[in-house]
Amino acid sequence: MPTAPSAPDRLPLLEHNGTTIEVYQHHGYSRPDRGPLPPSRILYAARDQNNERHWRGSLDEIESLIDRGFVVATISGGSL
Questions:
Q1: Three-state SS across the chain?
Q2: What would the pLDDT profile of 29-78 be if each residue is shown by its tens digit?
């Protein structure tokens, strides 16, 4: 039976163009009782003017989102 997940680690804050970027190391949703542990991953979060948190999987992606004023890019066939 898998055990409960570890809490995400909060890493030092970053800043891009005056916007604070929160950095988290996420250890997965559950930990197996045997076998290899799932790899951890880094997640980046920033808040827009409405205090809504936006998550991205890389620093480049979150910086690009901040540069676009938190406007989410649309897919060529429609919107997200």
A1: CCECCCCCEEEEEEEECCEEEEEEEECCCCECCCCCCCCCEEEEEEECCCCCEEEECCHHHHHHHHHCCCCCCCCCCCCC
A2: 777 778 787 788 999 999 999 999 999 999 999 999 999 999 987 776 55
Distance between CA 70 and CA 54 in Å, rounded?
A: 8
Environment class of residue 14 by beta-carbon count within 10 Å: exposed (0-12), middle (13-18) or buried (19+)?
Answer: middle
Cα(11)–Cα(60) distance, integer angstroms? 17
Q: What is the pLDDT of residues 4-18, one digit of tens each?
A: 777 889 999 999 999
